[in-house]
Every structure is written in C-alpha cells, then in structure tokens.
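Metallophosphoesterase
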Amino acid sequence: MRINVVSDVHGRADALAKAGVGADALICLGDLVLFIDYADTSQGIFPDLFGHERADEYIRLRTEKRFDEARALSAVLWAELGGDPREHIEKAVRAQYADLFAAMPVPSYLTYGNVDVPSLWADYVRPGQTVLDGETAEIGGLTFGFVGGGLQTRYRTSYEVPDEVYAAKVAALGPVDVLCTHIPPAIPDLLYDVVAKRFERGSEATLDYIRTYQPRYALFGHVHQPLAARTRIGRTECLNVGHFRGRGTPFTLDL
C-alpha cells in the first residue's frame, strides 16, 4: 500500500490536485489556509486586503517578537478597511477552501492545522474526503490515528486549543499503527525552524503517547524548515512530511 502525505498546504491547490498520483490514498495533516506567506508577501489573505508593503511590516514586527505592535498595526488596518474583520476573513477563507477541497484527490483523510477554521470544513468536504480529529480510521488493514490543530501560543492562530484539550484528543485514540498529527511531538530538534530561527510548540502528550504505544510511524508537519526532519523514539519513526506549499510534492509512505 502506498500513501501520499501532505501538510502545510497553504493555498497550493494546483499542486494538491496532483498529490494523490500513484498512491492508494492521500493524507492531509492540515494548514490548508494561506493567511500570509513569509517568503512571498504578495501572497495570502493579509496582503490581498492590505497590500504587500503592510504585509512586510507586519511580518517584520512578528519576526522581531514585537507582538503587541503587530496587533496594533493589524487593528489600525482593519479599522481603515471597515466592516467586521471576521466577515472579510471568512469570505477569503471560504474562497480558498472551495478551491482546495475541489482539487483534493480521493480517497483522502484529513485533519486540521493550527491556521484552519474547522467550523467551515463541512461546507466543502466532498464524498471520499474523511475528516478526523481525535479519531481513528482503518486504511489498508492498518489503524491510523488523527489529531488536528495546535497548542496555544502568542501567535493566536485560529485553531489552537488548551493543552488538556489536545491531550484528551491524543488519549482518545488508543493504540494505532500510524499516528498522524499536525504538530510534532515535543522534541527540540523537530521543533526548531532554521529559517524562522525559532522554536515552535510541540506536544508533550503526543511524545508520551509515542513512548507508551510505539506506533510504527508518527507523521506531522507544522515546522516548515526543521532542524531535523526525522528521528526515532524506540521503534517509532517520527517524520516531518515537509512543507507542501514550498515543495509542491507529497511525502510517500510505502507500507
């Protein structure tokens, strides 16, 4: 059985349409939405609304960890635009989801990323696209467990949950052959982004789960340019499947 796996799609509907070629199924580990592209500030919801120069400024403030100033800038821009910011964002997110779910091959198994909006997915999921979060699925005779979203951070992305809520989703899985999450287990080398030069948050609950149940694989994304893309915990091979927006090609898992 061959499974292609993607994460951090961030608007790449063009590449997503081809991501299932040669595979029996596609797994998507979330972050479908592109709010802002740190590598190309002309791309994403923020620059579409406010222009790439404002996007440059916003990214600079966040990169320098001047989060209060970044939020103040954002507040000024939204006030200048007028209307309810949530309506502007939802309209843009819906447009992206319409393209992405239409492009996504079937069969596919999906969970949410930390920048996704779970409440909107039901409007776009097609037959053959199965959404799971804190749930399992049998694929080719193996049990796959899925946990979506991220943990709470100062970045305040759209689908961050408290640690105890995330841990409960992990605990609900029971033993699986393949663990599929958006964020990595809490191992420093897997969490450090060498381009952004910062640590992302990982899950202690996921790390404890891997040590306890020893699935064959633990698959994740979230960290776009990790210091280490893979490591081993006992018999479990932990794999960052790659930044799909940047690579445009899936990770292939032969089972």
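thats it. The chain has ten helices and 15 strands. The two ends are 5 Å apart (CA to CA). bye
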